[in-house]
Design goal:
Elements (H helix, E strand, L loop, with lengths): L2 H36 L3 E5 L5 E2 L4 E6 L9 E5 L4 E6 L2 E6 L8 E7 L12 E8 L8 H12 L10 E3 L2 H5 L4 H17 L6 E4 L5 E2 L11 E9 L2 E9 L4 E7 L6 E4 L3 E2 L4
Parallel strand pairs: 2-8, 9-10
Antiparallel strand pairs: 1-3, 3-6, 4-7, 5-6, 7-8, 10-12, 11-12, 12-13, 13-14, 14-15, 14-16
Length: about 270
């Protein structure tokens, strides 16, 4: 056989081997995809465990297959009041309690089955509730918040959207104290026969007040500006430990006091 023909024959054999290898790889990939798509698994959670808003009223857990309407058991640590519903391949946990910012929660769900009767096994999640602004929440969580308000959820600090409370924490307020401040704003609204919607902390205005070491007072404090549904207040937050706080609101133009929550402890939450 002439050398040129021998080279052509070798190239054809090499090309054939490459095609066979490519076919085998494709067959394996397709087989794996078919196997994976047939598995009963969790596809996603909304919100994600790495960015869970403290104000989220729901947790969506989406599965790869439609779910059976079975009785589920949910367990939270620390305790959280929640209910659940099943729709197609989605499990929805409705969160009835207010989650504390920067606090870690552990959730276990048992009893999930697909419509073929296959059990998923225990679902276990751990996450830290975060102070996430409304505009930074997933769209589905924003919609769930709006629905909860439209459905007449009893007003509480959980029905108000707080923005910028991380600035208070950065200045030394604890997560519990932040929740106490939220409760104080809610009580202010109740005293005015109003239900506030949005409260924004001006991060640039947050300042810790100097503490006189020679003073007998054990109180610490900070000042900031609060925008409550469009009305601006000068706020003073005082506290003597990491579980209590007192909120005083003043008219920034006149300095006249409009509200004093008194000393509130986290036991009210």
């Amino acid at each position: 056989m002439p050398p040129q023909n021998r080279i052509v024959s070798i190239n054809r054999k090499a090309a054939g081997r490459l095609l066979l290898a490519a076919f085998i790889i494709c067959a394996i990939a397709i087989g794996y995809l078919l196997y994976w798509s047939a598995q009963f698994r969790i596809v996603s959670t909304t919100p994600s465990m790495s960015a869970f808003p403290a104000g989220s009223p729901v947790l969506f857990i989406d599965f790869s297959q439609p779910l059976a309407h079975t009785t589920l058991t949910t367990s939270w640590s620390p305790n959280v009041n929640s209910t659940y519903s099943i729709n197609g391949s989605r499990l929805t946990l409705n969160i009835r309690s207010t989650l504390a910012v920067n606090k870690q929660y552990h959730l276990t769900v048992t009893g999930v089955r697909n419509q073929q009767g296959n059990a998923y096994g225990d679902i276990a999640y751990s996450f830290t509730a975060q102070d996430i602004q409304y505009n930074d929440m997933p769209v589905e969580i924003q919609q769930a918040l709006l629905r909860s308000q439209d459905q007449g959820q009893p007003p509480s600090r959980n029905t108000m959207i707080f923005v910028g409370t991380d600035a208070l924490i950065n200045q030394g307020l604890s997560a519990l104290q932040t929740e106490v401040v939220k409760q104080a704003v809610f009580l202010f609204g109740q005293s005015q026969k109003k239900t506030f919607n949005t409260v924004t902390v001006d991060a640039s205005s947050v300042q810790s007040t100097p503490h006189d070491p020679e003073s007998e007072s054990t109180d610490f404090g900070m000042t900031c500006t609060l925008n409550i549904d469009g009305t601006v207040y000068a706020a003073m937050i005082t506290y003597h430990d990491l579980t209590n706080a007192e909120l005083v609101l003043k008219n920034p133009a006149t300095g006249a006091q409009v509200y004093d929550s008194g000393d509130l402890d986290s036991s009210i939450l």
